[in-house]
Design a protein that fits this description.
Blueprint: H1 2-11, E1 20-24, H2 29-45, E2 48-55, H3 61-76, E3 81-85, H4 88-95, H5 99-118, E4 122-124, H6 129-142, H7 146-149, E5 155-158, E6 164-167, H8 175-185, H9 201-216, H10 220-245, E7 250-254, E8 262-267, H11 268-272, H12 276-291, H13 299-310, E9 316-319, E10 323-328, E11 331-336, E12 347-348, E13 353-355, E14 362-369, E15 383-387, E16 395-398, E17 405-407, E18 414-416, H14 417-423, H15 428-431, E19 436-439, E20 442-446, E21 450-451, E22 463-470
Parallel strand pairs: 1-2, 1-4, 2-3, 4-6
Antiparallel strand pairs: 5-6, 7-8, 8-11, 9-10, 10-11, 12-16, 13-14, 14-22, 15-22, 16-19, 17-18, 19-20, 20-21
């Protein structure tokens, strides 16, 4: 049995010589077997081993018993032991999670902490073939595609302060094989009373559905494991193909305030030209990019985002992980819904002088005499010249307000700012954050876009107001077309 696992482990490149592996040790049969397996393998594979136990604050005395058992087992083998305590009930209440979800979150947070504190490279967890089969059935019941039917990945990148991975050496063996081996060795382990609680969906699958499947075929779990492996290969191929075929369909950029996430802009025409199977795959990957994780993104979310791409402007859908998808003028934007750009409190310009609005934009102004030479007017996106003698009121830097308009041609024709935004296809979620330079309700400058024709410098101009914006909203070396 150890030889079968070692072949699987080597095929998946789970452990390299010199690695430091953390073994998740709950005290249950699976994790006890995992620890004993790794303890045996390290004699010939030359890696370090540390046991980590997480006490979730759920089962009272039973939980403390498991912790003591895990410590004794580790120490009897000369394996360093680390224990963390967590409060899963409080986490579940705070974040509106199930107790299972909260416990899992906390467990992996503790593993992450242990990786950093121990200087380790891998986290080994005790998922086996039955767990993979349960996951496939669980995903199938909830609604899934090929990705969900791929089950549990043998090796998974894991976020920590350095490149690390989660490894699952036991996916090639079943729970029955594990328990039979422990029985032959006379090795005790802890029983978790919650494993028999049919309130939990996975327990119902484990105790009611999988036994029925084994009546059809005793090796049902192993067969599902092989199917999952094939589907994982297909899913990986589709992932790569979708990104290749769809590379011109989207652009991504950093999402302020969310270092793990990205804002994605999707060109709907190009996206919808892809085959349907690649649309689904690519959209799933793009939502995951925007969220910074793949967990909780289901087929229903992918389908709703694709429907948005084919629908009308102005529509939006809510997605998991705090995301919003919004359609705007032939494009779909995927972004964190809590992301907002700070508003600009109205600030009177000092002419000449400098003002410092709170959101980081610095405005510098200068008043100069003009000799009529139009060639000297700079063509920078965030530095503009205006005919100062045409300004009627105090000039303000602010966001948009009701009644705002700008002059759009040399004949004096005007347009409401709202209508100009619509005509220029400025996304609705961006409009309230665009800085404006205003003379009353007459907009001199939609900063970063255009100035009003009414204030343009001409050969007859005597005095020029120079306005330069510096700060986080731009790169000053951009030049207007």
């Amino acid at each position: 049995m150890f030889q079968k696992i070692r072949i699987f482990l080597e095929k998946q490149h789970m452990i390299e010589s010199g690695d430091h592996v953390i073994a998740g040790l709950s005290g249950g049969a699976d994790s006890v077997f995992l620890l004993l397996l790794l303890d045996e393998l390290r004699k010939t594979m030359e890696f370090s081993l540390t046991a980590v136990h997480v006490e979730h604050g759920i089962r009272g005395e039973e939980s403390l018993r498991d912790a003591q058992f895990s410590r004794r087992l580790s120490e009897s083998r000369g394996i360093p032991f680390v224990m963390y305590s967590a409060d899963a009930p409080s986490r579940a209440k705070q974040r509106h999670l199930t107790l299972e979800e909260a416990a899992r979150e906390l467990r992996y947070e503790c593993f992450r902490r242990a990786l950093d504190e121990c200087g380790a490279d891998k986290v080994a967890v005790a998922h086996h073939a039955d767990d993979l089969a349960e996951t496939m059935l669980f995903h199938l019941a909830r609604g899934t595609g090929i990705r969900g039917l791929s089950g549990i990945a043998p090796v998974l990148p894991f976020a920590a302060s350095k490149p690390c991975a989660i490894i699952r050496p036991l996916l090639c063996v079943t729970r029955r094989e594990i328990e039979e081996w422990l029985k032959k060795q006379g090795q005790s382990y802890c029983e978790d009373s919650t494993n028999s609680d049919l309130y939990y969906a996975r327990n119902r699958i484990r105790t009611q559905i999988l036994p029925e499947m084994r009546l059809l075929n005793a090796r049902a779990a192993e067969h599902m494991q092989r199917t999952a492996a094939e589907l994982a290969e297909i899913s990986a191929f589709l992932d790569e193909t979708a990104l290749q075929r769809g590379r011109d369909c989207y652009e991504k950029r950093d999402c302020p305030g969310h270092p793990e996430a990205q804002e994605i802009r999707i060109d709907c025409e190009k996206f919808l030209a892809l085959p349907a199977v690649l649309q689904k795959n690519l959209m799933h990957q793009l939502i995951a990019m925007a969220a910074g994780r793949k967990k909780d993104i289901g087929a229903v979310h992918v389908e709703s985002a694709i429907g948005l791409a084919a629908g009308g402007t102005g529509k939006r859908v809510m997605l998991p992980c705090g995301l919003i998808a919004e359609k705007s003028y032939g494009e779909v934007f995927l972004r964190k819904k809590e992301e907002t750009n700070a508003g600009i409190p109205p600030a009177d310009l000092k002419i000449p002088g400098v003002i410092f609005p709170v959101n980081g934009i610095t405005v510098r102004t200068e008043l100069i005499e003009f000799d009529g030479n139009l060639q000297q007017i700079p063509k920078k996106r965030y530095t503009k010249w205006f005919d100062y003698d045409k300004i009627k009121f105090t000039v303000q830097l602010r966001n948009r307000s009701k009644g705002d308009f700008l002059t759009i041609n040399s004949d004096g024709g005007t347009k409401k700012l709202k209508n100009w935004f619509i005509d220029e296809k400025i996304p609705q979620n961006k409009r309230d954050a665009i800085p404006l330079l205003a003379d009353g309700n007459h907009i001199l400058w939609v900063c970063g876009y255009r100035i009003s024709e009414a204030y343009k410098v001409s050969k007859e101009t005597k005095r020029v107001l120079v306005v330069a914006l510096d700060g986080k909203i731009h790169s000053e070396d951009e030049v207007n077309e």
